[in-house]
Amino acid sequence: MSVQRERRHVQRALESWAPALSAEEALARLEDAETSPEEALSLLRKLTPEQVAGLDLDALLGPMLQSEGYRVVSMIGRLKPDARTIGKLDQRLIQGVIGGSAPQNLVQYYLRYTGRHEFEKARHFLESGLQQATPEATGVFVMAAIGMRPGPDDEWLKWVEQTYQIPGDVRLAIKRRREPK
Fold first, then answer.
1. By percentage, how much of the chain surpasses pLDDT 70?
2. In degrees rounded to 5, what are phi and psi of residue 152?
3. What distances in angstroms separate CA 154 from CA 119, 128, 175, one per listed residue?
4. Is the pTM of this model over 0.85?
């Protein structure tokens, strides 16, 4: 972990010494298939919102969502893509969770950075994930819901327990959530 963090610090320092790219050069490099995820994220930081608006952010950021998780989610939050793009990115993250390549807390992080930190705002995403999930992956979506403030009501939690196969540790978390404090 610390080696990667130091590598990023060195990369950022080198970028700051490098001559500035024009917007046209940055856009051309983003379209180049050889551009690394790190470079693509760095190039996106240098563009204005107007320049970013012309890019296919799903095609650009979607493939990096699992490999560069938190950095990509942070960039998504900064760029504020339109609802159509968010819908496509939602599906990519759901598939990453189902495939086991997305860490559990990436879902909460993603929902927060896309403006859906409250349960009702995230409900569609969570239910879509549950409908597609394997029994192992259902826990990720339920735990993301439980972690929200305000979170789901008892009625929703009961519906989830009755409708989906939920791992034992997640059932225990639901039970704890329902217990009076």
1. 93
2. -70, 155
3. 12, 19, 10
4. no
